[in-house]
Amino acid sequence: MVENDTLALKTNNVYVHYGSKMAINNVAVDFHKNQVTSLIGPSGCGKSTFLRCLNRMNDVIDICKVQGEFHLNGIDIYGPEIQVENLRKQVGMVFQKPNPFPKTIYENVAYGPKIHGIASTKTELDDIVKDTLNRAGLYSEVKDRLDDIATGLSGGQQQRLCIARAIAIKPEIILMDEPCSALDPIATAVIEELINELKENYTIVIVTHSMQQAARISDKTAYFHLGEMIEFGVTSNIFTNPKHEMTEAYISGRIG
Amino acid sequence: MTQHINTAFDDGLADVNKQIVKLGALAETQLDNSITALKDKNIKKFDSIIQRDKKLDELTAEVSSSVFELIALWSPIAYDLRSLLVADRVGAILERVGDYSKNIARRSQVIVTEESFDRLPVNIVGLGEHVQGLLRQSLDAYMENDIQKAMTIWESDIDTDRLYLSIFKEIVSYMSDNPDDAKMLTHMVFISKNLERVGDYTTSIAKQTYFLTEGEYPDTKRPKAMTTY
Protein backbone atom coordinates (compact mmCIF):
# COMPACT_ATOMS: atom_id res chain seq x y z
CA MET A 1 0.00 0.00 0.00
CA VAL A 2 1.18 3.51 -0.76
CA GLU A 3 2.52 5.07 2.41
CA ASN A 4 0.75 8.39 2.24
CA ASP A 5 -1.38 9.51 5.13
CA THR A 6 -2.28 12.90 3.66
CA LEU A 7 -6.01 13.31 3.39
CA ALA A 8 -7.39 14.11 -0.05
CA LEU A 9 -11.06 14.03 0.77
CA LYS A 10 -12.74 13.77 4.14
CA THR A 11 -16.40 12.91 4.54
CA ASN A 12 -18.38 12.80 7.76
CA ASN A 13 -22.01 12.47 8.93
CA VAL A 14 -23.19 11.93 5.36
CA TYR A 15 -26.92 11.42 4.85
CA VAL A 16 -28.62 11.20 1.46
CA HIS A 17 -32.37 11.06 0.89
CA TYR A 18 -34.30 10.49 -2.32
CA GLY A 19 -37.55 12.15 -1.32
CA SER A 20 -38.48 10.49 1.96
CA LYS A 21 -36.32 7.42 1.32
CA MET A 22 -32.98 7.37 3.09
CA ALA A 23 -30.21 6.15 0.74
CA ILE A 24 -27.14 6.93 2.87
CA ASN A 25 -27.25 6.83 6.65
CA ASN A 26 -24.48 8.56 8.60
CA VAL A 27 -21.44 7.53 6.57
CA ALA A 28 -17.90 8.77 7.18
CA VAL A 29 -14.93 7.82 5.01
CA ASP A 30 -11.50 9.41 4.69
CA PHE A 31 -9.83 9.13 1.30
CA HIS A 32 -6.05 9.40 1.41
CA LYS A 33 -3.90 10.84 -1.36
CA ASN A 34 -2.42 8.38 -3.85
CA GLN A 35 -4.54 5.54 -2.60
CA VAL A 36 -7.23 3.51 -4.32
CA THR A 37 -10.37 3.05 -2.23
CA SER A 38 -13.00 0.51 -3.27
CA LEU A 39 -16.64 0.87 -2.35
CA ILE A 40 -18.33 -2.54 -2.35
CA GLY A 41 -21.76 -3.85 -1.40
CA PRO A 42 -24.92 -5.34 -2.88
CA SER A 43 -27.02 -3.48 -5.45
CA GLY A 44 -28.97 -0.67 -3.84
CA CYS A 45 -26.62 -0.39 -0.85
CA GLY A 46 -25.81 3.24 -1.63
CA LYS A 47 -22.22 2.92 -2.82
CA SER A 48 -22.83 4.63 -6.19
CA THR A 49 -25.01 7.27 -4.53
CA PHE A 50 -22.17 7.98 -2.13
CA LEU A 51 -19.63 8.08 -4.97
CA ARG A 52 -21.77 10.57 -6.87
CA CYS A 53 -21.87 12.83 -3.81
CA LEU A 54 -18.12 13.26 -4.07
CA ASN A 55 -18.35 15.45 -7.19
CA ARG A 56 -21.95 16.57 -6.70
CA MET A 57 -23.37 14.45 -9.49
CA ASN A 58 -26.50 14.06 -7.37
CA ASP A 59 -27.17 17.81 -7.69
CA VAL A 60 -29.01 17.16 -10.94
CA ILE A 61 -31.55 14.87 -9.23
CA ASP A 62 -34.30 17.11 -7.89
CA ILE A 63 -35.53 14.83 -5.12
CA CYS A 64 -32.01 14.04 -3.90
CA LYS A 65 -30.98 15.78 -0.70
CA VAL A 66 -27.35 15.49 0.42
CA GLN A 67 -26.25 16.40 3.95
CA GLY A 68 -22.94 16.09 5.76
CA GLU A 69 -19.32 17.16 5.51
CA PHE A 70 -17.31 16.77 2.31
CA HIS A 71 -13.93 18.44 2.57
CA LEU A 72 -11.57 18.43 -0.39
CA ASN A 73 -8.20 19.64 0.86
CA GLY A 74 -10.04 21.19 3.76
CA ILE A 75 -12.60 23.04 1.60
CA ASP A 76 -16.32 22.22 1.83
CA ILE A 77 -17.29 21.10 -1.70
CA TYR A 78 -20.96 21.88 -0.98
CA GLY A 79 -20.05 25.42 0.17
CA PRO A 80 -21.86 28.39 -1.46
CA GLU A 81 -18.71 29.68 -3.16
CA ILE A 82 -18.01 26.39 -4.91
CA GLN A 83 -18.57 26.25 -8.67
CA VAL A 84 -19.61 22.73 -9.59
CA GLU A 85 -17.75 22.85 -12.94
CA ASN A 86 -14.51 23.63 -11.14
CA LEU A 87 -15.19 20.90 -8.58
CA ARG A 88 -15.64 18.36 -11.37
CA LYS A 89 -12.35 19.49 -12.86
CA GLN A 90 -10.74 18.54 -9.55
CA VAL A 91 -12.83 15.40 -9.07
CA GLY A 92 -13.19 13.61 -12.41
CA MET A 93 -15.41 10.66 -13.15
CA VAL A 94 -15.37 7.52 -15.27
CA PHE A 95 -18.63 5.66 -15.75
CA GLN A 96 -19.70 2.04 -16.04
CA LYS A 97 -20.26 2.15 -19.78
CA PRO A 98 -17.57 3.85 -21.87
CA ASN A 99 -19.13 7.09 -23.10
CA PRO A 100 -16.75 8.81 -25.51
CA PHE A 101 -18.05 11.88 -27.32
CA PRO A 102 -19.03 11.06 -30.93
CA LYS A 103 -15.98 12.98 -32.04
CA THR A 104 -12.39 12.10 -32.89
CA ILE A 105 -10.02 10.47 -30.43
CA TYR A 106 -8.01 13.71 -30.37
CA GLU A 107 -11.06 15.88 -29.67
CA ASN A 108 -12.24 13.63 -26.86
CA VAL A 109 -9.04 14.27 -24.95
CA ALA A 110 -8.55 17.89 -26.06
CA TYR A 111 -12.09 19.01 -25.14
CA GLY A 112 -11.51 19.39 -21.38
CA PRO A 113 -8.17 21.21 -21.53
CA LYS A 114 -9.66 23.54 -24.18
CA ILE A 115 -12.74 24.59 -22.21
CA HIS A 116 -10.83 24.87 -18.94
CA GLY A 117 -8.16 26.99 -20.65
CA ILE A 118 -5.39 24.59 -19.70
CA ALA A 119 -3.73 24.85 -23.14
CA SER A 120 -3.15 28.19 -24.82
CA THR A 121 -1.63 27.02 -28.11
CA LYS A 122 -2.27 24.18 -30.52
CA THR A 123 1.20 22.78 -29.84
CA GLU A 124 0.52 22.82 -26.12
CA LEU A 125 -2.80 21.04 -26.69
CA ASP A 126 -1.09 18.45 -28.91
CA ASP A 127 1.41 17.78 -26.13
CA ILE A 128 -1.34 17.40 -23.53
CA VAL A 129 -3.26 14.97 -25.77
CA LYS A 130 -0.17 12.89 -26.45
CA ASP A 131 0.96 12.90 -22.81
CA THR A 132 -2.51 12.08 -21.51
CA LEU A 133 -3.05 9.23 -23.96
CA ASN A 134 0.36 7.91 -22.95
CA ARG A 135 -0.54 8.00 -19.28
CA ALA A 136 -3.79 6.22 -20.07
CA GLY A 137 -1.76 3.51 -21.83
CA LEU A 138 -3.50 4.19 -25.13
CA TYR A 139 -1.16 6.35 -27.21
CA SER A 140 0.80 3.54 -28.89
CA GLU A 141 -2.48 1.94 -30.00
CA VAL A 142 -4.07 5.10 -31.45
CA LYS A 143 -1.21 7.41 -32.44
CA ASP A 144 -1.80 6.84 -36.17
CA ARG A 145 -5.53 7.40 -36.00
CA LEU A 146 -6.07 10.32 -33.67
CA ASP A 147 -8.51 11.79 -36.17
CA ASP A 148 -10.68 8.67 -36.27
CA ILE A 149 -14.05 8.73 -34.52
CA ALA A 150 -13.62 7.47 -30.93
CA THR A 151 -16.67 5.24 -31.02
CA GLY A 152 -14.80 2.99 -33.45
CA LEU A 153 -12.41 1.89 -30.67
CA SER A 154 -12.90 -1.37 -28.77
CA GLY A 155 -14.76 -1.23 -25.44
CA GLY A 156 -11.53 -1.42 -23.42
CA GLN A 157 -9.89 1.27 -25.55
CA GLN A 158 -12.97 3.49 -25.22
CA GLN A 159 -12.85 3.14 -21.44
CA ARG A 160 -9.16 4.05 -21.40
CA LEU A 161 -10.02 7.02 -23.59
CA CYS A 162 -12.60 8.07 -20.99
CA ILE A 163 -9.93 7.76 -18.31
CA ALA A 164 -7.63 9.87 -20.52
CA ARG A 165 -10.42 12.42 -20.88
CA ALA A 166 -10.77 12.51 -17.10
CA ILE A 167 -7.05 12.99 -16.40
CA ALA A 168 -6.52 15.48 -19.25
CA ILE A 169 -7.79 18.28 -17.03
CA LYS A 170 -5.44 17.27 -14.21
CA PRO A 171 -7.89 16.31 -11.48
CA GLU A 172 -6.83 15.36 -7.97
CA ILE A 173 -9.38 12.63 -7.56
CA ILE A 174 -10.82 10.18 -10.08
CA LEU A 175 -14.15 8.53 -9.31
CA MET A 176 -14.86 5.30 -11.15
CA ASP A 177 -18.28 3.68 -11.17
CA GLU A 178 -17.83 0.03 -12.14
CA PRO A 179 -15.41 0.96 -14.93
CA CYS A 180 -14.75 -2.64 -15.99
CA SER A 181 -18.20 -4.17 -15.79
CA ALA A 182 -18.66 -4.00 -19.56
CA LEU A 183 -15.15 -5.21 -20.40
CA ASP A 184 -13.60 -8.61 -21.08
CA PRO A 185 -10.93 -10.01 -18.69
CA ILE A 186 -7.99 -8.77 -20.79
CA ALA A 187 -9.36 -5.21 -21.13
CA THR A 188 -10.16 -5.35 -17.40
CA ALA A 189 -6.59 -6.34 -16.56
CA VAL A 190 -5.28 -3.44 -18.66
CA ILE A 191 -7.55 -0.97 -16.82
CA GLU A 192 -6.55 -2.42 -13.45
CA GLU A 193 -2.88 -2.04 -14.31
CA LEU A 194 -3.61 1.52 -15.42
CA ILE A 195 -5.36 2.28 -12.11
CA ASN A 196 -2.30 0.96 -10.31
CA GLU A 197 -0.09 3.34 -12.30
CA LEU A 198 -2.47 6.30 -12.00
CA LYS A 199 -2.50 6.22 -8.22
CA GLU A 200 1.04 7.58 -8.22
CA ASN A 201 -0.46 10.89 -9.26
CA TYR A 202 -4.13 10.68 -8.35
CA THR A 203 -6.46 9.57 -5.59
CA ILE A 204 -8.93 7.01 -6.89
CA VAL A 205 -12.33 5.96 -5.55
CA ILE A 206 -13.90 3.01 -7.35
CA VAL A 207 -17.25 1.30 -7.07
CA THR A 208 -17.01 -2.34 -8.07
CA HIS A 209 -19.10 -5.47 -7.87
CA SER A 210 -16.05 -7.64 -8.38
CA MET A 211 -14.63 -8.71 -5.04
CA GLN A 212 -11.48 -9.90 -6.74
CA GLN A 213 -11.05 -6.55 -8.45
CA ALA A 214 -11.43 -4.68 -5.15
CA ALA A 215 -8.92 -7.07 -3.58
CA ARG A 216 -6.44 -6.67 -6.46
CA ILE A 217 -6.39 -2.94 -6.95
CA SER A 218 -7.40 -1.11 -3.81
CA ASP A 219 -5.51 -0.04 -0.72
CA LYS A 220 -8.65 0.48 1.34
CA THR A 221 -12.13 -1.02 1.05
CA ALA A 222 -15.48 0.15 2.40
CA TYR A 223 -18.40 -2.26 2.63
CA PHE A 224 -21.88 -0.71 2.32
CA HIS A 225 -25.18 -2.34 3.22
CA LEU A 226 -28.63 -0.71 3.09
CA GLY A 227 -27.14 2.78 3.06
CA GLU A 228 -24.79 2.21 5.98
CA MET A 229 -21.06 1.71 5.89
CA ILE A 230 -20.58 -1.54 7.79
CA GLU A 231 -16.81 -1.82 7.64
CA PHE A 232 -13.92 0.24 6.31
CA GLY A 233 -10.29 -0.80 6.44
CA VAL A 234 -7.11 -1.91 4.74
CA THR A 235 -8.11 -4.12 1.80
CA SER A 236 -5.91 -7.05 2.77
CA ASN A 237 -7.57 -7.14 6.20
CA ILE A 238 -11.08 -6.88 4.78
CA PHE A 239 -10.47 -9.83 2.45
CA THR A 240 -8.50 -12.06 4.79
CA ASN A 241 -10.05 -11.35 8.15
CA PRO A 242 -13.04 -8.99 8.12
CA LYS A 243 -14.19 -7.90 11.54
CA HIS A 244 -17.89 -7.73 10.80
CA GLU A 245 -19.99 -10.83 10.11
CA MET A 246 -21.99 -8.98 7.44
CA THR A 247 -18.80 -8.16 5.53
CA GLU A 248 -17.65 -11.78 5.77
CA ALA A 249 -21.04 -13.01 4.53
CA TYR A 250 -21.07 -10.61 1.59
CA ILE A 251 -17.53 -11.10 0.33
CA SER A 252 -17.79 -14.88 0.73
CA GLY A 253 -21.17 -15.08 -0.99
CA ARG A 254 -22.90 -16.41 2.13
CA ILE A 255 -26.49 -15.96 3.21
CA GLY A 256 -26.23 -12.96 5.52
CA MET B 1 -20.91 -19.40 9.72
CA THR B 2 -23.95 -19.44 7.43
CA GLN B 3 -24.02 -21.47 4.23
CA HIS B 4 -23.08 -20.02 0.85
CA ILE B 5 -25.74 -18.80 -1.58
CA ASN B 6 -24.19 -21.13 -4.16
CA THR B 7 -24.02 -24.32 -2.11
CA ALA B 8 -21.63 -26.14 -4.43
CA PHE B 9 -18.68 -24.59 -2.58
CA ASP B 10 -20.11 -25.82 0.75
CA ASP B 11 -20.34 -29.30 -0.76
CA GLY B 12 -16.69 -29.11 -1.85
CA LEU B 13 -15.61 -27.92 1.60
CA ALA B 14 -17.63 -30.71 3.25
CA ASP B 15 -15.85 -33.25 1.03
CA VAL B 16 -12.45 -31.87 2.10
CA ASN B 17 -13.49 -32.14 5.74
CA LYS B 18 -14.54 -35.76 5.21
CA GLN B 19 -11.14 -36.48 3.64
CA ILE B 20 -9.40 -34.88 6.64
CA VAL B 21 -11.50 -36.96 9.07
CA LYS B 22 -10.47 -40.11 7.21
CA LEU B 23 -6.82 -39.02 7.11
CA GLY B 24 -6.86 -38.11 10.81
CA ALA B 25 -8.38 -41.46 11.75
CA LEU B 26 -5.72 -43.30 9.76
CA ALA B 27 -2.88 -41.21 11.24
CA GLU B 28 -4.21 -41.91 14.75
CA THR B 29 -4.43 -45.63 13.98
CA GLN B 30 -0.87 -45.71 12.63
CA LEU B 31 0.47 -43.99 15.72
CA ASP B 32 -1.58 -46.21 18.04
CA ASN B 33 -0.44 -49.34 16.23
CA SER B 34 3.21 -48.34 16.34
CA ILE B 35 3.00 -47.83 20.11
CA THR B 36 1.02 -50.99 20.90
CA ALA B 37 3.19 -53.06 18.55
CA LEU B 38 6.26 -51.81 20.41
CA LYS B 39 4.60 -52.61 23.73
CA ASP B 40 3.53 -56.08 22.57
CA LYS B 41 6.64 -56.74 20.45
CA ASN B 42 4.29 -57.59 17.58
CA ILE B 43 6.53 -58.07 14.55
CA LYS B 44 3.64 -58.65 12.10
CA LYS B 45 2.02 -55.39 13.08
CA PHE B 46 5.20 -53.46 12.29
CA ASP B 47 5.04 -54.67 8.70
CA SER B 48 1.41 -53.66 8.28
CA ILE B 49 2.17 -50.17 9.67
CA ILE B 50 4.96 -49.73 7.15
CA GLN B 51 2.76 -50.94 4.30
CA ARG B 52 -0.20 -48.77 5.29
CA ASP B 53 1.82 -45.54 5.22
CA LYS B 54 1.30 -45.40 1.44
CA LYS B 55 -2.45 -45.05 2.03
CA LEU B 56 -1.80 -42.04 4.25
CA ASP B 57 0.30 -40.44 1.49
CA GLU B 58 -2.49 -41.06 -1.03
CA LEU B 59 -5.14 -39.49 1.21
CA THR B 60 -2.90 -36.45 1.82
CA ALA B 61 -2.49 -36.02 -1.93
CA GLU B 62 -6.29 -36.22 -2.31
CA VAL B 63 -6.78 -33.44 0.25
CA SER B 64 -4.19 -31.24 -1.52
CA SER B 65 -5.77 -31.88 -4.88
CA SER B 66 -9.28 -31.04 -3.61
CA VAL B 67 -8.02 -27.85 -1.93
CA PHE B 68 -6.15 -26.79 -5.06
CA GLU B 69 -9.24 -27.35 -7.21
CA LEU B 70 -11.54 -25.42 -4.87
CA ILE B 71 -9.14 -22.47 -4.72
CA ALA B 72 -8.77 -22.44 -8.51
CA LEU B 73 -12.50 -22.68 -9.19
CA TRP B 74 -13.94 -20.52 -6.43
CA SER B 75 -11.25 -17.94 -5.52
CA PRO B 76 -12.32 -18.13 -1.87
CA ILE B 77 -11.52 -15.33 0.55
CA ALA B 78 -11.49 -14.70 4.30
CA TYR B 79 -12.75 -17.71 6.36
CA ASP B 80 -13.32 -19.81 3.24
CA LEU B 81 -9.71 -19.35 2.14
CA ARG B 82 -8.40 -20.02 5.64
CA SER B 83 -10.50 -23.22 5.81
CA LEU B 84 -8.83 -24.55 2.69
CA LEU B 85 -5.29 -23.44 3.58
CA VAL B 86 -5.63 -24.97 7.05
CA ALA B 87 -7.08 -28.21 5.64
CA ASP B 88 -4.07 -28.52 3.36
CA ARG B 89 -1.63 -27.80 6.20
CA VAL B 90 -3.34 -30.22 8.60
CA GLY B 91 -3.25 -32.83 5.83
CA ALA B 92 0.52 -32.34 5.47
CA ILE B 93 0.96 -32.55 9.27
CA LEU B 94 -0.96 -35.84 9.43
CA GLU B 95 1.14 -37.21 6.63
CA ARG B 96 4.27 -36.39 8.71
CA VAL B 97 2.70 -38.06 11.76
CA GLY B 98 2.32 -41.13 9.55
CA ASP B 99 5.99 -40.91 8.54
CA TYR B 100 7.06 -40.81 12.19
CA SER B 101 4.82 -43.79 13.01
CA LYS B 102 6.39 -45.74 10.15
CA ASN B 103 9.87 -44.81 11.36
CA ILE B 104 8.97 -45.92 14.89
CA ALA B 105 7.79 -49.25 13.45
CA ARG B 106 11.02 -49.69 11.45
CA ARG B 107 13.25 -48.97 14.45
CA SER B 108 11.09 -51.06 16.78
CA GLN B 109 11.47 -54.06 14.45
CA VAL B 110 15.20 -53.90 15.10
CA ILE B 111 15.15 -53.43 18.86
CA VAL B 112 12.32 -55.69 20.12
CA THR B 113 14.29 -58.80 19.20
CA GLU B 114 17.28 -57.64 21.25
CA GLU B 115 17.79 -59.74 24.32
CA SER B 116 18.29 -56.74 26.64
CA PHE B 117 15.16 -54.89 25.39
CA ASP B 118 12.95 -56.05 28.29
CA ARG B 119 15.44 -54.98 30.92
CA LEU B 120 15.27 -51.30 29.93
CA PRO B 121 13.59 -49.07 32.46
CA VAL B 122 12.56 -46.32 30.04
CA ASN B 123 8.88 -45.52 29.53
CA ILE B 124 8.66 -44.83 25.79
CA VAL B 125 5.17 -46.28 25.67
CA GLY B 126 4.08 -43.73 28.30
CA LEU B 127 5.40 -40.89 26.11
CA GLY B 128 3.65 -42.47 23.13
CA GLU B 129 0.30 -42.66 24.89
CA HIS B 130 0.65 -39.06 26.06
CA VAL B 131 1.31 -37.88 22.49
CA GLN B 132 -1.54 -40.06 21.18
CA GLY B 133 -3.91 -38.23 23.54
CA LEU B 134 -2.65 -34.88 22.26
CA LEU B 135 -3.15 -35.91 18.64
CA ARG B 136 -6.74 -36.97 19.32
CA GLN B 137 -7.49 -33.75 21.24
CA SER B 138 -5.88 -31.53 18.60
CA LEU B 139 -7.93 -33.16 15.83
CA ASP B 140 -11.09 -32.81 17.94
CA ALA B 141 -10.29 -29.12 18.52
CA TYR B 142 -9.76 -28.62 14.79
CA MET B 143 -12.95 -30.43 13.76
CA GLU B 144 -15.02 -28.67 16.40
CA ASN B 145 -13.35 -25.28 15.78
CA ASP B 146 -12.69 -25.14 19.52
CA ILE B 147 -10.09 -22.46 20.28
CA GLN B 148 -10.05 -23.13 24.03
CA LYS B 149 -9.19 -26.76 23.46
CA ALA B 150 -6.61 -25.78 20.85
CA MET B 151 -4.88 -23.35 23.22
CA THR B 152 -4.75 -26.00 25.97
CA ILE B 153 -2.81 -28.24 23.59
CA TRP B 154 -0.64 -25.32 22.49
CA GLU B 155 0.36 -24.74 26.10
CA SER B 156 0.70 -28.41 27.08
CA ASP B 157 3.60 -29.19 24.76
CA ILE B 158 5.90 -28.46 27.69
CA ASP B 159 4.71 -31.72 29.29
CA THR B 160 5.76 -33.64 26.17
CA ASP B 161 9.16 -31.96 26.29
CA ARG B 162 9.62 -32.91 29.94
CA LEU B 163 8.67 -36.55 29.35
CA TYR B 164 11.04 -36.76 26.39
CA LEU B 165 13.85 -35.09 28.31
CA SER B 166 13.49 -37.53 31.17
CA ILE B 167 13.61 -40.51 28.77
CA PHE B 168 16.59 -39.04 26.95
CA LYS B 169 18.54 -38.65 30.19
CA GLU B 170 17.68 -42.18 31.29
CA ILE B 171 18.87 -43.63 27.98
CA VAL B 172 22.12 -41.65 28.05
CA SER B 173 22.76 -42.76 31.61
CA TYR B 174 22.00 -46.40 30.75
CA MET B 175 24.19 -46.19 27.67
CA SER B 176 27.31 -45.23 29.63
CA ASP B 177 26.89 -48.36 31.78
CA ASN B 178 25.91 -50.63 28.87
CA PRO B 179 27.95 -49.62 25.82
CA ASP B 180 27.15 -52.94 24.08
CA ASP B 181 23.52 -51.82 23.81
CA ALA B 182 24.48 -48.54 22.11
CA LYS B 183 22.82 -49.43 18.80
CA MET B 184 19.51 -50.38 20.42
CA LEU B 185 19.61 -47.38 22.72
CA THR B 186 20.26 -45.02 19.81
CA HIS B 187 17.16 -46.40 18.09
CA MET B 188 15.26 -45.73 21.30
CA VAL B 189 16.44 -42.12 21.35
CA PHE B 190 15.16 -41.73 17.79
CA ILE B 191 11.82 -43.36 18.64
CA SER B 192 11.42 -41.01 21.60
CA LYS B 193 12.41 -38.04 19.46
CA ASN B 194 9.87 -39.08 16.83
CA LEU B 195 7.16 -39.12 19.47
CA GLU B 196 8.28 -35.73 20.75
CA ARG B 197 8.05 -34.39 17.17
CA VAL B 198 4.52 -35.79 16.84
CA GLY B 199 3.77 -33.82 20.02
CA ASP B 200 5.12 -30.68 18.29
CA TYR B 201 2.88 -31.38 15.31
CA THR B 202 -0.19 -31.57 17.55
CA THR B 203 0.59 -28.01 18.64
CA SER B 204 0.84 -27.06 14.96
CA ILE B 205 -2.69 -28.41 14.44
CA ALA B 206 -3.77 -26.35 17.47
CA LYS B 207 -2.08 -23.27 15.99
CA GLN B 208 -3.83 -23.78 12.66
CA THR B 209 -7.17 -24.17 14.48
CA TYR B 210 -6.57 -20.81 16.14
CA PHE B 211 -5.67 -19.24 12.78
CA LEU B 212 -8.76 -20.73 11.14
CA THR B 213 -11.08 -19.04 13.60
CA GLU B 214 -9.22 -15.84 14.47
CA GLY B 215 -7.50 -15.06 11.17
CA GLU B 216 -4.18 -14.62 12.97
CA TYR B 217 -1.75 -16.77 14.93
CA PRO B 218 -1.61 -16.89 18.73
CA ASP B 219 0.64 -14.08 19.94
CA THR B 220 2.16 -16.10 22.78
CA LYS B 221 5.24 -18.22 22.31
CA ARG B 222 4.73 -21.91 22.84
CA PRO B 223 6.15 -22.92 26.27
CA LYS B 224 9.17 -25.21 25.83
CA ALA B 225 11.14 -27.29 28.30
CA MET B 226 14.27 -27.77 26.22
CA THR B 227 15.94 -26.64 23.05
CA THR B 228 18.91 -28.87 22.33
CA TYR B 229 17.99 -32.57 22.71
Automatic annotation (TrEMBL), chain A:
Top-level division of the source organism's lineage: Bacteria
Species of the source: PS1 clade bacterium
Key word Nucleotide-binding present: yes
PROSITE patterns for the chain: ABC_TRANSPORTER_1 (PS00211), ABC_TRANSPORTER_2 (PS50893)
NCBIfam families registered for this protein in UniProt: 3a0107s01c2
Keyword field: ATP-binding, Nucleotide-binding, Phosphate transport, Transport
GO biological process assignments: phosphate ion transmembrane transport
Classification via InterPro entries: AAA+_ATPase, ABC_transporter-like_ATP-bd, ABC_transporter-like_CS, P-loop_NTPase, PstB-like
GO CC aspect terms: membrane
Protein name, per record: Phosphate ABC transporter ATP-binding protein
Gene3D superfamilies reported in the protein's UniProt record: P-loop containing nucleotide triphosphate hydrolases
GO molecular function terms attached to this record: ATP binding; ATP hydrolysis activity; phosphate transmembrane transporter activity
From TrEMBL, chain B:
UniProt keyword RNA-binding present: no
Cellular component aspect of the GO annotation: cytoplasm
Alphabetized UniProt keyword annotations: Cytoplasm, Phosphate transport, Transport
Entry's localization field: Cytoplasm
Keyword Nucleotidyltransferase: no
Residues of the PhoU domain: 20-107, 126-208
Major subcellular site: cytoplasm
Alphabetized InterPro entries for the sequence: PhoU, PhoU-like_sf, PhoU_dom
GO biological process, one term: negative regulation of phosphate metabolic process
Entry's family note: Belongs to the PhoU family.
Purpose of the protein: Plays a role in the regulation of phosphate uptake.
Subunit structure as annotated in this protein's UniProt entry: Homodimer.
Protein name in the entry: Phosphate-specific transport system accessory protein PhoU
Organism the protein comes from: PS1 clade bacterium
Origin organism lineage: Bacteria, Pseudomonadati, Pseudomonadota, Alphaproteobacteria, PS1 clade
